[in-house]
Structure formats: structure tokens, C-alpha cells
Write a structure and sequence with these properties.
This protein has 303 residues and is α/β, with parallel strands linked by helices. The longest helix has 9 residues. The chain is globular, with a radius of gyration of 18 Å. It starts with a strand and ends with a strand. Bound molecules: D-malate (MLT), manganese (II) ion (MN) and zinc ion.
């Protein structure tokens, strides 16, 4: 399967429009060895003609323009996007749906909880219905599998994650199974598996099991430390409180990834405050030493 990283940044992207943090300031001034990043999303395909879009970022327009394989090929209106899978209803994963309103019917795969958020707190499905057809396809939360018409040779397994619904959700403070899911994508003919989870607050046993089985894991790279946004005086919220396991320290993502020996390991959904955005940083060298890659916009993986 081919995996295209359309965007690799967290909510806000890098640099973020109103941010003057060490990273954002330096990348704007070209004083940093690093890359700008749009908000996270990937696309997968086995034939490079029919693509599944995983999450729809607010930056989708630029992401599609940067990726010829998914662009119109025939007729006056066309796209390589056959379906869209949403892992949650966060703004940085769903706002891009509004940009797809000119299209043919949207085949959207997401949990019932995400569907509820997207018809209430952020009623994007209701809004889109005035422009194009939205066909919702429910997905399992128990690790059950399904296939998607038009997406050849891939099978999907989705499992609930312990996390939170977005701040706008009617049940923000009342977690439900299916607010967030982790995703395993298996190529049926080869058995190769990708585990994709850009927001992971906690490594539950079923998450570790999925990571151990995968040939490639692409997981939450939001923050380096739990206090990152506090020490930079951006927010009082700690990484874990908002559903992101930091990379460093005991029980952090590096430790977890080190225990998943066979897989190719990548971090995605990198927040603009994270020192790993600087290719020359000590933190980045620490990742290099562990064989952990940092995803970037435009990266393609053949699995
Ligand atoms: C998150 O993953 O925590 C979000 O990116 C936050 C946001 O979109 O504001
Ligand atoms: Mn996010
Ligand atoms: Zn910043």
C-alpha cells in the first residue's frame, strides 16, 4: 500500500498564524533547519488511483494541490478521493470536509459518536447536505473489520481509544466509546499493516497489541513534554490532559515505540511547540538514535 502524508502538523499547523513561540518565530525568520507543516491527514491507496482520505484537515486544498495522484484525471469534475474516514470530530480533522462540498456524494466513515458531533455541536454534515450528498457509514469501535467500496485490497479495523470529544461536543465532559478511534489498515493480498493514531493519550493494552502487529506505526507526535505548553506560557493544559502522550520521560512515546521492535516508526501531528521540529535539535537526535522518524508533508511510504 502507498501512504501519502498530506499534512503532519497538529491543530494550528506550523507555523501557527498567531504564534510567536521559539519554533514559529525561527521558522518564519528562516533561522531554523526544519519544515513548515500543514495540519495532519494521510491518504492511502493500493493502486494510486483510488484513495481513502483519513481525516479532512482545514489545509486540505493545499494538500491536494501538492499531490498530483489524487487530482482530477478525466471529465470536467473528478477526484481520486473515493471515501473519507474520520478518527474523531476534532476541528483539525473535519473542517476540510467543507472544502469538498463541490464534489460528488461524500462517502464518510466514522463512529456514531463522531456522526452525532458532526450533526450537533459542529453540524458540518447538515451544512454539507445543502451542497452535496453525505453518506454516513458507521464503523466499529471493538476492533471489528470492514472494507470500503472502491478502495481495493485494503481492510480496516477500528477500535475505541480512551480520549475526549472536542471542546464543542455536547458530551465533552461525558466520554463515550467511539469519540476517538485507532485505525489498523491491512493490505489483504500482502498482510502488511499500518497502525494510525495521531491522537493517543494512553497506551491501552489493545493499542500496544495493534502496534506490535503492525509493520508501520504512525502515532501521536504532538508534544515532547507534558508541560510543553505551560513552560512556553501558551496554556495551562498539560499534554496528557488534552489526550496526547508526550514523547520524552518515563512511559512516554519513545519508550513505547522502543518496545515495538519490528515496525517502522513515525510520529505525526507535531505541535508547533515541539523541539523535534528543529532537525538539528538534541531531541531530534534522540529520536534518530531510536530509529523514530518524524513525518513531514509530502512523505510517501510504500508498505
Ligand atoms: C488536538 O489534537 O488536541 C487538537 O489539534 C486541538 C485543536 O485542534 O485545537
Ligand atoms: Mn489535533
Ligand atoms: Zn508556535
Amino acid at each position: 500500500m502507498k501512504i501519502r502524508v498530506l499534512g503532519s502538523g497538529a491543530g494550528g499547523g506550523f507555523p501557527q498564524w498567531n504564534c510567536n513561540c521559539n519554533n514559529c518565530r525561527r521558522i518564519r525568520r528562516k533561522e531554523m533547519n526544519g519544515r513548515a507543516r500543514t495540519q495532519s491527514s494521510i491518504a492511502v491507496s493500493t493502486d494510486q488511483a483510488n484513495w481513502l482520505l483519513i481525516n479532512a484537515s482545514p489545509d486540505i486544498r493545499a494538500q491536494l494541490e501538492a499531490f498530483p495522484a489524487i487530482q482530477p484525471k478525466q471529465g470536467v469534475r473528478d477526484t481520486g478521493i473515493r471515501a473519507i474516514l474520520l478518527i474523531d470530530s476534532q476541528i483539525d480533522h473535519t473542517t476540510g470536509l467543507l472544502m469538498l462540498r463541490e464534489g460528488r456524494p461524500l462517502e464518510i466513515y466514522c463512529t456514531e459518536m463522531v456522526r452525532q458531533d458532526l450533526t450537533t455541536g459542529f453540524p458540518v454534515f447538515n451544512m454539507l447536505a445543502h451542497y452535496c450528498t453525505v453518506n454516513h457509514h458507521p464503523v466499529p469501535t471493538d476492533g471489528g473489520s470492514f472494507t470500503i467500496p472502491g478502495i481495493h485490497d485494503l481492510r480496516f479495523y477500528t477500535q475505541a481509544l480512551k480520549s475526549k470529544a472536542p471542546p464543542y461536543s455536547p458530551h465533552r465532559h461525558d466520554p463515550h466509546e467511539g469519540d476517538n478511534i485507532g485505525l489498523i489498515i491491512e493490505q489483504i493480498s500482502t498482510g502488511k499493516k499500518l497502525f494510525y493514531s495521531p491522537g493517543l493519550g494512553e497506551i491501552e493494552p489493545h493499542v500496544l497489541e495493534a502496534m506490535l502487529q503492525a509493520d508501520c506505526v504512525m502515532v501521536d507526535g504532538t508534544f515532547w513534554t507534558d508541560e510543553e505548553m505551560c513552560t512556553q506560557q501558551i496554556s495551562h493544559k498539560k499534554a496528557r490532559e488534552i489526550g496526547h502522550l508526550p514523547q520524552s520521560g518515563e512511559g512516554g512515546m519513545i519508550e513505547v515505540l522502543n518496545s515495538v521492535a519490528k515496525a517502522r516508526k513515525l510520529l505525526i501531528h507535531i505541535n508547533n511547540t515541539n523541539p523535534i521540529l528543529d532537525d538539528d535539535s538534541a531531541e531530534r537526535k534522540q529520536l534518530d538514535a531510536c530509529g523514530i522518524e518524524v513525518a513531514y508533508d509530502g512523505l510517501e511510504i510504500d508498505l
